Amino acid sequence: MLTVKNLNSGYGKLQVLYDLNINVPEKELTVIVGPNGAGKTTLLCSIMNIANVFSGEIIFGGEPLAGVVTHKLAQKGISYVPQMGNVFADLTVLDNLHMAGYMLSKAEVNDKSEQMTEIFPVLKAFIYRLAGTLSGGERRMLAIAMGLMKNPKLMLLDELSTDLAPIIAERVMVEIARMRDELGITILLVEQMAKRALEIGDTAYLLVSGEVRYSGKADSLLHEPELCSMYLGIKQASGKDADTKLSVLGEGSENS
Amino acid sequence: MAPWLSSGLVYASGLALTAGSITLLYIVTRTFNFAVASMATIGFYVAYSGVTLYGGLPYLYYPLVLIIGAITGVVCYYGLNRPLLYRKAAETTLMMSTLGYDLILLSVIQMYADFLTHSYKLFPRRVTMSLFDFELFGERAAAFILPIIAIAFLTILHIFLTKTKFGIAMRATIENPTLAGASGINSDRVYLVSWIISGGMAALGGSFIAMAMTGTPVMGMFIIPLMFAGAILGGLGNIYGGILGGMVIGLTEFAGVFILAQNFGPWVLGYRMGIPLFIMAATLLVFPRGLSGIPLAKIIRNLFRRKRGARA
Fold first, then answer.
1. Stronger pLDDT, B66 or A232, i.e. the higher one
2. Nearest CA to CA, how far is A197 from chain B (Å)?
3. Is A122 exposed, middle or buried (0-12, 13-18, 19+ CB in 10 A)?
4. Cα distance between residue A210 and residue A45, in whole Å
5. Which end of chain B has a smaller Cβ tally under 10 Å, C or N?
């Protein structure tokens, strides 16, 4: 569904990504993992035409996205949920949902808003509250709901588990997997909570210093002890059943 | 009505609109619009041209003032602001570009004043617009009509920003342009509408201000410090704060001059602009985030608590 070919991009004159090649198959969950500063968010920003693309191609549904402005990308069916500032804090939850469905008709917006409050019941209770007053977990749920409002073909999710308590982060991960399994949405997930993301993902890319160091099955990356411990902070337990005894170095702190 | 209050209300209504215009553009496009000075003067000349060439009251020409003001905003947006925003220009560059546009508009105003003089034998370089006003309840009608128009305009603006889809989209873009773009909101259209509203507000404000002071081609340049003072007093981050700031600056100038001149003599008139600027500085020392940063709800809550405590 989405193909990134030989992408070189960054901000201003600063290059962050080098000859990046990524393929996001339809109705699959593709996970991008890597240490801080690897260029994961820059990849999403390049797709959304927020970062500067120096060279290379980004093709979505067979159509090149070069020069397509951000709001037009949303109209093409790409939904982007940023890591920070992913809700409009000064607007109510309902207005946030309505803004997320800006391109839809009034009837569609009302239907989808209702649908979102059914999928995420926690939003129903706070529908007239300012989004800025929601807790971290509630905000992420709202952000995902806003992403879904657009009837997206592709969702770009940027580190949604950051700063969340482990139990809430787990709930967010379950929701992401559910979007793929039940709604059939193609997802490109950038995540620092690497172990959990690789467990739910289909395909994975390990990004280090703007370059791809691993590409393949998501769960296979978990069986690459050197890459896991060096770049993801995931340490394999010793012993014959090491496959199933993966421990995470500082699970809580790796999100920082 | 006290004489200072009558003129002060007219003047303050105009300053409120111009300060609101500056604030709106700043929060949407990060642009301090210096061209607000000449946009305001253009508003005055549109009303003046209407009453002198076609007759009637100045109020009849305010819709035209709004349209011409909006056009000056659109020209500035497409001619200067938009290309610079797309090149991610710094705030200083954006600000200085509007100063250049202001000088262009000022030249156009001067040429237009000459045109009125030579073609229609008018005297447009020193105009007392209040001469075209009428009396209402023994006072200048402007003292009643202009605050009402200003309040009506601001009410419509408030409804637009809070109740309409595009207005809410504008607020969303102001808060988070990246997320707004990702939601499918066309920020280009939001910026354009901001310039239209802002240009209209500036021109309408200028036509109001000319009802309280002598209208000249450099009228806007003379009062631009007070327009910015109003916007800064309002906190620069909130359009309602900017409007309130403009109103406070306008009223304190007239009230301050009246009170000080009565006590210390007419020489005080020469320092009239210092009074509202002093009020602005003093307010910012106490409330650094301006009027919009005053925790009114908290203050009122505390007052009620104290009252209840005193009763108990």
1. B66
2. 24
3. middle
4. 13
5. C
B279, B267, B208, B228: which is closest to B8 by C-alpha?
A: B208
Segments forming the whole domain that contains residue B50: 3-311
Which chain B residues contact residue A102 at CB under 8 A? 165, 169, 183-185
For B186, the closest of A48, A71, A82 (CB atoms) is: A71
Least confident range of A8-17, A161-170, B36-45, B280-289: A161-170
Instruction: List the single residue in A with minimal CA-CA distance to B167.
Output: A99
pLDDT value at B83 more than 90: yes
Give chain A's radius of gyration (CA, Å).
Answer: 18
Please give the residue range of the domain that contains residue A11. Answer: 2-255
Cβ-Cβ contacts under 8 Å, B176 against chain A? 85, 88
List the Cα angle B53/B7/B18 in 5-degree steps: 75
Locate tokens 């000056």: which residue?
B72
Contacts of A86 in chain B (CB under 8 A): 179
- State how many domains chain B has: 1
Closest to B57 measured CA to CA, from B167, B172, B140: B140
Contacts of B165 in chain A (CB under 8 A): 98, 102
Other C-beta atoms within 10 Å of B141: how many? 18
pLDDT digits (tens, 9 = 90+) for A37-62: 889 999 999 999 999 999 999 999 88
- A136: its two tokens: 């971290």
User: Collapsing DSSP states into helix, strand and coil, what is residue A64?
Assistant: strand
Residue with tokens 């304190």: B252
Closest CA to A188 of A168, A171, A165, A207: A207
Q: What is the pLDDT of residues B256-307, one digit of tens each?
A: 888 888 888 888 888 888 888 998 899 899 888 888 878 777 788 888 887 7
- The overall average pLDDT reported for chain A is 85
Which of A2-6, A118-122, B211-215 is predicted with the least confidence, judged by mean pLDDT? A118-122
CA distances from A254 to A163, A190, A232, A243, B298 (A): 10, 14, 8, 21, 39
Contact A70 B168 (CB under 8 A): no
The domain that holds A108 is classified in CATH as 3.40.50.300
Please judge whether A50 and B171 are an interchain contact, meaning their C-beta atoms are less than 8 angstroms apart.
no
For A:48-67, CB contacts with B below 8 A are 48, 50
Q: Is the pTM of this model over 0.95?
A: no
The residue of chain B with its CA nearest to that of A88 is B172
Would you call A11 an interface residue with chain B, using a CB distance cutoff of 8 Å? no
Among B169, B178, B187, the residue with its CB nearest the CB of A99 is B169
d(CA B238, CA B171): 11
Which has the closest alpha carbon to B39: B155, B157, B187, B208? B208
Q: What is the pLDDT of residues A184-220, one digit of tens each?
A: 899 999 988 888 888 889 999 999 999 998 888 988 8
Pick the closest to residue B221 from B70, B40, B98 (CA basis). Answer: B40
Distance of CA A13 to the CA centre of its chain: 26
Mean pLDDT over residues B86-95, rounded? 89
Counted domains in chain A = 1
DSSP code for A133? G
Amino acid letter for position A63? E
Which residues of chain A does B169 touch, with a Cβ-Cβ cutoff of 8 Å?
Answer: 99, 102
